[in-house]
Design a protein that fits this description.
The protein is about 20% helix and about 30% strand. It is built from 20 helices and 49 strands.
């Protein structure tokens, strides 16, 4: 057998076996770097699992492989860096593996299967989940398939080889590796590490119908052999890994979290903080390029970073490094300089925590681990609470002397005083005192009985009826005043009231309906990730038994042993269990008592809410299209594969097309569309959007010389631009990028609009839930307005900027709006944390809500709002964002299922006033506070 050592595109040295002496039988065989499978005359090669560690290293191959042959199969002992050990077993119908020693910082594992190019000559087909295709003869599209799925089938004629990969939530890709000069196709399955999944069993063969049975028997046999339980390891102090990224020096600090010391911003004529134009990182060295000819070399030397100007930018006056500290550090974190130290404050106070020269800065987490940065040249140090600027994060600025030619930064991690601190008690509550805090099960039960009697006192429906108004079964206001159409579905109509035109959202019975929704209408953000920090909690139950429902998802699923809801645990304490249908009915009764009438985004829809006639919204199913890098949530609409994928996925909406309770569909959430003009030129030719962009340049300029002059660069041809990362640095270039962005947005909305209407002609498209900085864009609003029924903005604010929302209204062609996400917090009177809009009391929180909702209704074009969320976020961070997740007092209910009474009372008052204000018959209530009355 001929063998060669080669360097794969993954960055791992592997042993590739080529052509001679392989077995042609059906039984797979183990090799030094993986397993060979036979399909007809073709051989497929599966590499042993590769690992991704939070030390900054990914796709780590085994450092040693020991293959032994047993009576039942082949057994392979694999050794990995960071003390990792794995047992990999190969049998006739499956392979399986388990860690005998989990390496430190394991995040995920990756299985990679190489398939020969000869499959194209054999007209071979592939199938992954419900998608299928053929292997291309010539290299064209690189990504043949991307999705979540747990299976793969390859078929050549009548012969078939199929695999059932470990988890359906794994991310799988089938690619043409010729893109990276590797002559094969590649299938990869990347699965987040789940400590609860003790063994991974992958059945294979020609009959997938038996795979589930094969897996079940193998898992049962494994657990029968390993029934003895070992105690969980004691939490270890975090370590420090330093690497270079596109953004700066990345500092991975284990349970402390991750930090990045940015590459310096430079002050240039007309720009106070000019970012690098592009960064190239390779082999521990970064080349950072700036405008005006600047070039900085950053070299990593152990845990030191050396910065050297190869060319200072012309006209540079100052330079600044910055580093953000996660907001969770307000739960016991501290900072220290050469001459001062202090706490990161739980409650917003002075914005400037420290300002002075200091050569050293350290940040200490609640477990008393300290990350230190030491500068060879003393910078002017600023430590800042960014809540002053509506951003819940702590900022550190290092202002370097402008004349610096070179400097070093040394990084260290002191864990000598490490000790896990208890962050939450057994009820999920923080240490500090606050109203309504629970101290015992008996107190929890007494409070629950008392709270149950509170909701009827709100009596929204009864009070509304006394005022002369009646609600129909959908929650709409019964009236024949406006002669609105009765279409059987929610829609919008513009009506003339007095001297003004007003937009009304109309329910299926033809009555006005102001959408008063609650996002997250179920336990969700109250789950917190306990991975690697179980000692931080005073109590955590097993994920089996009485409190099993308080753990997320089902046993064996990835989040099941990681994400825990103290809210659900407290409900279980009160009633002995948690039933989704029963609780949904209770939640509906509670929010209706205060006047809420619908279920907002990010919510499951249960049969109970349907039986109770609760209207709801949904988000469009768009499948798994290829996304545009650095533009959050935006796919490439020019990619033919994306067109097919989105068109296929949108067929799902047909199943709800006749549902009268469905208000409409959001397209997405908080996409960074404002980044498109910057990101589009920097793409390479793998993206259809970049190829279309270059085609537009060719059409506009005609000759490459005219283009070069306009863009201020030198290029040999338009073809050369396809793979070149461009920066729009001239006025003409910015104009070209903006015009191309318009074409991309037009294609995006046209594709979605056409395919949606073809499958559901009855419901509305209710927007992309833009953030204000995204919405403040005339081009975007004009294009979106041609396709959307309603414009949605996730509008977080204290004082309503009427000029801004009217500007968006005008740009969109006069389309009505939903303000689709907002909340206020009152940290002093809650268990959870603050937001940028933190208030002193729960009553003030409710007054802020009144000001917002009535002010929105008074405008005449806002037809609904969505409060975020039903239940407070977990005080140790919502689960899917890890240890740094949001942890705010967003809820109507606390972690102990207690209502914020003063908040709900004020919300009820807002809802009682809403319709007269909406119809222009009454002025909105105003919160007479400078924060809410400022223009």
């Amino acid at each position: 057998m001929k063998q060669i050592i080669t360097h794969c595109r993954t960055g791992i040295y592997v042993l590739l076996s080529i052509a001679a002496g392989w077995s042609h039988g059906a039984t797979p065989s183990a090799a030094p770097n993986g397993v060979r499978f036979q399909l007809g005359n073709e051989e497929l090669h599966l590499f042993y699992p590769q690992l991704d560690l939070n030390t900054g290293n990914d796709r780590i191959a085994p450092t040693s492989v020991n293959v032994t042959q047993g009576d039942d199969g082949t057994h392979v002992a694999l050794t990995y860096p960071h003390q990792g050990q794995m047992c990999f077993d190969l049998f006739a119908d499956r392979f399986q593996f388990h860690f005998t020693r989990v390496p430190d910082g394991l995040k995920s594992y990756r299985l990679e299967l190489h398939l020969p190019l000869a499959l194209a000559n054999r007209n071979a087909n592939w199938r992954i989940g419900n998608q299928n295709g053929t292997f291309p003869m010539n290299h064209g599209k690189t990504k043949l398939c991307q999705r979540n799925a747990g299976d793969l089938t390859v078929q050549v004629g009548n012969e078939r080889l199929a695999f059932l990969f470990p988890e359906t939530y794994a991310w799988v890709e089938l690619q043409d590796y010729r893109e990276w000069n590797t002559p094969c196709y590649g299938y990869t399955s990347t699965t987040p590490f789940n400590a609860d999944r003790k063994v991974m069993v992958i059945p294979f063969g020609d009959n997938p119908a038996h795979f589930a049975e094969v897996r079940a028997k193998a898992e049962a046999a494994f657990f029968a052999r390993t029934a003895v339980q070992t105690p969980p390891p004691k939490p270890a102090a975090p370590g420090l890994a330093v690497s270079l990224s596109d953004d700066g020096v990345a500092l991975a600090c284990g349970s402390m979290g991750s930090f990045t010391l940015s590459y310096p911003f430079v002050s240039l004529p007309g720009k106070d903080r000019s970012k690098p134009q592009n960064v190239s990182v390779k082999d521990g060295k970064a080349i950072v390029r700036y405008a005006n000819g600047g070039q900085l070399t950053v070299t990593l030397e152990g845990k030191d970073a050396a910065f050297v100007w190869a060319q200072r930018p012309e006209g540079m006056k100052a330079l600044l490094h910055e580093m953000f500290v996660p907001f969770r550090y307000n739960q016991g974190g501290r900072w220290q300089s050469d001459t001062a130290e202090g706490d990161y404050p739980a409650i917003k106070g002075n914005a400037k925590l420290f300002q002075n020269h200091s050569s050293r800065f350290s940040v200490q987490d609640p477990n008393r681990c300290a990350l230190g940065l030491t500068f060879s040249v003393k910078p002017f140090l600023e430590v800042q609470d960014n809540r002053e600027w509506d951003w819940s994060i702590f900022w550190t600025g290092f202002h370097m002397p402008a004349e610096c030619r070179e400097w070093r930064v040394s990084f260290d991690l002191d864990t000598s005083r490490y000790a896990e601190r208890k962050l939450l008690d057994r009820y999920g509550q923080v240490e500090r005192k606050f109203p309504g805090k629970i101290h015992s099960d008996e107190e929890l039960k007494r409070a629950s009985l008392d709270d149950a009697a509170f909701y009827p006192t709100l009596d929204f429906a009864g009070r509304l009826e006394k005022a002369g108004y009646t609600l129909n079964r959908y929650g709409g206001l019964v009236t024949d005043r406006f002669a609105l159409r009765k279409t059987g579905f929610f829609h919008v109509e513009k009506v003339r009231i007095g001297e003004t035109d007003r937009w009304l959202l109309v329910d299926p019975l033809g009555n006005p309906f102001f959408h008063l929704g609650v996002c997250g209408f179920a336990p969700s953000d109250d789950f917190t990730d306990v991975t690697g920090r179980t000692a931080s909690f005073a109590w955590l139950p097993a994920n089996k038994g009485d409190f099993a429902a308080a753990w997320k998802d089902r046993p064996g699923d990835w989040w099941n042993s990681r994400a825990f809801s103290f809210y659900k645990a407290n409900v279980i304490r009160l009633g002995g269990g948690y039933d989704d249908e029963e609780r949904t009915g209770l939640y509906v009764k509670r929010v209706r008592a205060a006047g809420f009438n619908s279920i907002g985004a990010f919510s499951p829809i249960y049969e109970t809410s349907r039986r109770m006639n609760v209207p709801y919204v949904q988000t469009l199913p768009l499948g798994n299209p290829k996304m545009i890098p650095s533009v959050r949530g935006m796919f490439d609409p020019f990619d033919p594969g994306n067109v097919s994928e989105v068109s296929r996925a949108l067929k799902q909406v047909a199943s709800r097309a006749s549902d009268p309770l469905l208000i409409g569909y959001f397209l997405a959430n908080e996409q960074a569309m404002e980044e498109i003009p910057r990101a589009l030129p920097a793409l390479d030719g793998h993206f259809a959007a970049k190829r279309e962009f270059v085609a537009g340049l060719r059409k506009k300029y005609g000759t490459i010389d005219r283009f070069n002059t306009a863009w201020g660069i030198t290029a040999d041809s338009f073809d050369a631009l396809v793979d070149r990362k461009l920066t729009a640095a001239t006025h003409e270039a910015e104009t070209d990028a903006r015009e191309a962005t318009g074409r991309l947005l037009e294609a995006y909305y046209a594709l979605i609009g056409k395919q949606f209407r073809a499958n559901d002609p009855n419901h509305m498209l209710i927007g992309n839930r833009w953030q204000p900085q995204t919405a403040d864009n005339e081009q975007l609003c004009r294009i979106a307005g041609r396709y959307l029924d309603i414009i949605s903005i996730n509008y977080y604010t204290m004082a309503i900027d009427e000029a801004f929302v009217r500007r968006v209204y005008g740009w969109s062609g006069g389309k009505p709006q939903f303000w689709s996400e907002f909340y206020y917090t009152a940290t002093r009177e809650s268990n959870a944390g603050p937001s940028s809009h933190d208030l002193a009391t729960q009553r003030e929180r409710g007054m802020a809500y009144r000001n917002y909702v009535e002010g929105a209704a008074a405008l005449g074009f806002v037809t609904g709002i969505e409060w975020f969320t039903l239940i407070d976020q977990a005080a140790t961070g919502r689960f899917f964002e890890g240890i740094n997740g949001e942890r705010a007092n967003t809820g109507l209910l606390s972690v102990t299922d207690r209502p914020y009474r003063d908040l709900l009372r004020e919300m009820t008052e807002a809802h009682l006033n809403l319709y007269p204000v909406w119809f222009g018959l009454k002025k909105p209530w105003r919160f007479e506070d400078p924060r809410f009355t400022a223009k």
